[in-house]
Structures are given as structure tokens and as C-alpha cells.
Amino acid sequence: QSVLTQPPSVSAAPGQTVTISCSGQNSNIGSNYATWYQQLPGTAPKFLIYDNDKRPSGISARFSGSKSGTSATLSITGLQTGDEADYYCGTWDRTLSAYVFGTGTKVTVL
Amino acid sequence: EGQLGQSGAEVKEAGESLKISCQGFGYTFTSHWIGWVRQRPGKGLEWMGIIYPGDSDTRYSPSFQGQVTISADKSISTASLQWSSLKASDTAMYYCARLVGASLDSFDIWGQGTMVTVSS
Q1: How far are the Cα atoms of A30, B4, B114 from residue B10, in angstroms, in the given order?
Q2: Are A56 and B108 an interchain contact pair (Cβ–Cβ within 8 Å)?
């Protein structure tokens, strides 16, 4: 069972902005960096955001991340049909000594 | 940058054994943890465990401890995941990924996945 909670789904029209929350605890998000992954249909997850708010090389600036306390947030601006995917947060949990993933959020472009 | 290449899809019967593999290219394989992640059809990502190929230090998720074995052969830059007796509930896509970050926060490189189908 996931210890990081995300909304099951979010949706918006093309060009709009969506935000996805990732709620955790002091032992994970609260004390470590949050990472975000994008999983397009039928493909492996892709590294999207690391250290709460940094983008790996090649990731569009339309994707941004932030963290406050025990919650992290992913924002996607200028939404495109190609952004339709599942998005997961993740980090190391110091109490569990385990990597934990969020429950996942499906983004739909209306 | 690096890449991870996984072995091909498997179709097995319940009770059979299986070993799938993940080979690293283009980076120092022994200097980074490699993790395994399960994704059942239509479901989310589940962390199974990690191994440090440099010294084979291994950590398991409690959910998978005793159910699978993670190993590595640094001479061929390959990590492996194996089952001694498969169950139908092991049907899933299995991904390997490189774990990085000061606090092991991020899986930055992912394999393409190995689909394992177990019939009962």
C-alpha cells in the first residue's frame, strides 16, 4: 500500500494548468526530496522532476515542482494532449527504510 | 547518461522458477543502486527492493522479502530478479531503474520493462 497520497485524476482543457498534490509524512516527503515521474500509456516511467523542483535535461519548462512541509506539488502549464499520462511522486522513507511511490494521478486533457 | 536494458517477456506456469535481468550501459554500474519496481496491470508502481552492485548490499521491501531474490553480477553489469515458485499474482510488468540522490530520492534511468505472465 502506498504511503504517499495523490488524487486519482485531474483534467483540464488544452492550454490550461493542472496541479497534482502528493501528501506524505515527516519520514518521507518531510525529510527528503520529492521526485516526480511521468508514465505515458504503454511505456516505462520517465524521470520528470527531482530535488523537489529541478528538471532533468530535456524536460519542458511547462513542468514544475514545489514542496511545502510534508506535501509536494507538480504543476503542468500550457497543457497539451501529449501530457495525457499517469504521474507518480516518490521518495525514500527513513522510517520504513524503503522507497515509496504515490498512488498515481491520471491526467486527462479535455 | 546511461541506459538499462531488460530481458524479454516471459510466459510461465504457476510453480515454475524464473530469473529476469537488467544490464547497465554507459555509466559505472558498480557505483549506483539498482532497484526493481512491479506494476500489475492497470495498477500503480510498487518498490520491490534495491541492490548496490559494487558490494551486492541488498534491501527488500517487506512486501517482497522472501518472495523474490535480487542479485547482481558486476562483471557483466547485470542485475537480476528471480522467483523460485511463481504464482498467478506475480503477473505484472517489472522495471529496473537506477536509484540516485543524496538520500536515494530518485530513479533517474529506467529499463523498458519485462512483462511476466503466469498462468494457473
Answers
A1: 39, 18, 8
A2: yes
Name the grid cell of B75. Answer: 562483471
Residue-level pLDDT at B102: 86
- Please name the residue that has the C-alpha cell 509524512: A25
Residue of B nearest to A104 (CA): B44
Cell of A47: 524521470
The whole-angstrom distance between B24's CA and the closest CA on chain A is: 16
Q: Where are the alpha helices (DSSP H) in A42-98?
A: none
A2-A51-B108-B44 Cα dihedral, nearest 10 degrees: 20
Phi first, then psi, for residue A38 (nearest 5°) are -115, 130
Cβ atoms of A109 and A14 closer than 8 Å: yes
Hey, is the C-beta of A103 within 8 angstroms of any chain B C-beta? yes
Q: What is the pLDDT of residues A25-66, one digit of tens each?
A: 999 999 999 999 999 999 999 999 999 999 999 999 999 999
Phi, psi torsion values for B49, nearest 5 degrees: 165, 175
Using a CB-CB distance cutoff of 8 angstroms, which residues of chain A are in contact with residue B101?
33, 35, 50-51, 92
CA distances to A65, A97, B94 from A70, in Å: 14, 17, 29
